[in-house]
UniProtKB/TrEMBL annotation:
InterPro entries: Methyltransf_16 (IPR019410), SAM-dependent_MTases_sf (IPR029063). One of its GO terms (molecular function) is methyltransferase activity. One of its GO terms (biological process) is methylation. This is MT21C methyltransferase. It comes from the Eukaryota. It comes from Glareola pratincola (Collared pratincole).
Length: 221
């Protein structure tokens, strides 16, 4: 059910004062590392949305509950890569995925923030929701401990393919962590569909930002 009592949190000001004067770079600090994110104004996926800040913060604060060290982590709709970078710093084997047009900026951010660090080298791959999943990520080869998704639900036409993608990757033993800013009735409809398919818990709410963070796991057959 989705009727849990989530912890109420606030998105902390984890970004540090701008060192550079460029409008397109944001500086954040998570898990003791300064992370510099280049945003792009051309693409939706290339801006840091509040769900990414909420999930990054939550992963940093709840490392015992969600220990990512040496775990296989897939981020869908990775956007600027902030969450994937944080997961990487926390020791995960990360695969960050998004649409082809976002990959260049995503790769740039991930490589510049994870190079020269003693961690598993992250991978960046194309993943179009609902398309070519069996070919590109065959179940026999790819099993993930965690699926991460932030602000993937908004006014777009790919909500059903997104849900199908979550269902495809969220096998028994996998934990899906999804953080989203809730703005539209369609967002709540998506949440309802998610609750119908998975065992779903609202872990945290960030009321000032209208962000909810959910944990979903596959139902036992």
């Amino acid at each position: 059910s989705c009727t849990d009592s989530p912890v109420i949190l606030k998105i902390l000001q984890n970004w540090v004062p701008r060192v550079s004067h460029y409008f397109d770079k944001e500086h954040y600090t998570y898990v003791g590392h300064q992370i510099v994110i280049q945003e792009s104004i051309e693409h939706f996926g290339a801006v840091v949305w509040p769900g990414a800040l909420a999930l990054s913060q939550y992963l940093e604060s709840n490392q015992e509950q969600f220990n990512l060290k040496d775990k296989k982590v897939l981020e869908i709709g990775a956007g600027t890569g902030l969450v994937s970078i944080v997961a990487c710093i926390l020791g995960a084997y990360v695969t960050a995925t998004d649409l082809p047009e976002v990959l260049e900026n995503l790769s740039y951010n991930i490589s510049r923030n994870t190079q020269n660090m003693n961690m598993h080298k992250p991978e960046v791959r194309k993943l179009v929701w609902g398309e070519g999943l069996n070919e590109d990520f065959p179940v026999s080869t790819y099993h993930y401990d965690f699926i991460l998704a932030t602000d993937v639900v908004y006014h777009h036409t790919a909500l059903d393919p997104l849900l199908a993608t979550m269902a495809y990757f969220c096998k028994p033993g996998t934990v899906l962590l999804w953080a989203n800013k809730f703005r539209f009735s369609t967002d709540y409809e998506f949440l309802e569909k998610l609750c119908n398919i998975f065992n779903t818990t609202i872990l945290a709410e960030f009321p000032e930002s209208n962000v909810k963070l959910l944990k979903a796991t596959a139902r036992e057959i």
